[in-house]
Amino acid sequence: MNDRRDVYIVDGSRTPQLKARGKPGPFSASDLAVSAGRALLTRHRFDLGELDEVIIGCVMPSEDEANIGRVIALRLGVPQRVPAWTVQRNCASGMQSIDSAYQNIANGQADLILAGGVEAMSRAPLLYNSKMVNWMAELMQAKTFGQKLKTFTRFRLGHLKPVIALLRGLTDPVVGLNMGQTAENIAANFGITRKQMDSFAVDSHHRLAAAHTAGYLEEIEPIYDGGGKFYDHDDGVRPESSVEKLAKLRPVFDRKYGSVTAGNSAQVTDGAAMLLLASEDAVKKYQLPVLAKIVDTQWAGLDPAVMGMGPVHAMSPIMERHQLATEDIDYWEINEAFATQVLGCVEAWKDKAYCKTHLGKDQAYGEIPRERLNVDGGGVSLGHPVGASGARIVLHLAKLLQRENARRGMASLCIGGGQGGAMLIEKAENNFTQSEVA
Questions:
Q1: Which long-range contacts (CB under 8 A, 24 or more apart) does 252-255 make?
Q2: What's the pLDDT at 429?
Q3: Sign of the CA dihedral running 328, 298, 100, 7
Q4: Residue 319 is inside which H or E element, if any?
Q5: Are 75 and 47 contacting, i.e. CB atoms less than 8 angstroms apart?
Q6: From the candidates 58, 345, 355, 414, which is the catalytic residue?
Q7: Does the annotation mark 384 as catalytic?
Q8: pLDDT attached to residue 162
Q9: DSSP letters along 370-413, please?
Q10: Per-residue DSSP letters for 195-224?
Q11: Angle, alpha carbons 234-237-242 (nearest 5°)
Q12: What is the pLDDT of residue 438?
């Protein structure tokens, strides 16, 4: 471990996160990533051929975006000789891309990498069901007019019932639960009430609205569609949100007994976040700024039925390796897949029984202060484009540490299928680059 090199987050940009509104959004996934990536790369003076690779997290690229990482790289003008690839770890795909870049730079295999994540959830496909696919296959195989006519007679209206890829993708095939049902499990396990969920959701909207007003989200780059319309903010934010208004919404996933609603769940959105990672050698060579240093990463597995607890299981080993207490972390970003999911993680973190049973600790970690957690809102207010969120929270946390002149931050996500991911970063200074360049 001693010969591993330091890895720095140099800079980053993201698009506004645009709420899905019942039809395909104005941008493809690669459109979004190219927009964020172009804004990022044009701020720096190195030739794009100096990149060692491009790594992109994405869950649902379109049929025209196979290995979307390569598509994005070429569209950005990255030379053909620079390899590019795509990673998929469900909700943490964007964080996985950063971790993959981090490992390659730390191990000395690369010096400069463009990494990030993207998702155009509004463009998730509608698929033919298996009956329709089999019927079409039979029709294609029919040779004579009589065979084709016989096949036509076997067509039924039920063949036209589509498979909604987004809903299927948000359902765990092993335990047979969709993500909202796993959130209901967490609410039941920790006694989290509907009012607590709605209060958290309202707070998320108010925090995001305040961050927009204060100009804190400087990482957002406006994006223009083909008609000249521009988008410059996360358009799912509802500053007027209130607990009273959210209380009128009906539960979505357990209509009879549940508490998880569309209002206290992450919004379905389109968005991209791109980051530039570099070794110290590259920082000095290209006179790059630095936002933060990546200190450690961790991936964890757990019961898919309570996948939302993943952040707790991923953050704990990092805390132990670095002998950190909760108060040693200045700011926390826990992706808001559901309000109850974040609330459950907070409860587990301070619950001695949970920490002993599931994390092997004799004592609980303690309270994560709400004023240090998701201070500028999260997925409930700005959405959770699954391939992008992991990159977004790392980028925003790095910006936050600089803004508040704070030392350490922890970013974490739950992952569909029963996993968690976490990344510890520290604020970095430019001092060593200035001395080397002088």
A1: 252/180, 253/178, 253/180, 253/181, 253/183, 253/184, 254/181, 254/184
A2: 81
A3: positive
A4: helix 310-321
A5: no
A6: 414
A7: yes
A8: 83
A9: GGGBSTT--HHHH---TTTHHHHHHHHHHHHHHHHT--EEEEEE
A10: HHHHHHHHHHHHHHHHHHHHT--TTB--EE
A11: 170
A12: 34
Alpha carbon of 58 to those of 231, 313, 354, 359, 410: distances in Å?
22, 23, 33, 30, 22
State the Cα–Cα distance between residues 280 and 297, nearest whole angstrom.
19
In this structure, what is the dihedral angle of CA atoms 105, 110, 113, 119, given to the nearest 10 degrees? -80
Spatial distance between the Cα atoms of 289 and 105, rounded to a whole number of angstroms: 17
CA–CA distance from 142 to each of 24, 132, 146, 207 (Å)?
35, 15, 9, 61
Nearest to 275 by CA among 88, 63, 80, 105: 105
Helix, strand, coil percent content, the chain, rounded in steps of 5: 40, 20, 40
What are the structural domain ranges in the chain? 128-164
Phi/psi of residue 38, each to 5°?
A: -65, -45
Q: Is 414 a catalytic residue?
A: yes
pLDDT computed for residue 433 by the predictor? 45
Alpha carbons 9 and 278: distance in angstroms, whole number:
7
What's the half-sphere exposure (Cβ side, CA atoms, 13 Å) at 272?
32
Residue 367, H or E segment: none
Q: Which two tokens stand for residue 413?
A: 């996500």
Strands (E), 101-236: 112-120, 126-127, 163-164, 171-172, 177-178, 223-224, 230-231
pLDDT confidence of residue 2: 62
Q: Which residues of the chain have pLDDT under 50?
A: 1, 433-438
Catalytic residue among 212, 313, 384, 396: 384
pLDDT on residue 133? 87
Question: Using CA atoms, how far apart are residues 378 and 411, in angstroms rounded to an integer?
Answer: 12
91, 205, 345, 355: which one is catalytic? 91
**Does residue 91 carry a catalytic annotation?**
yes
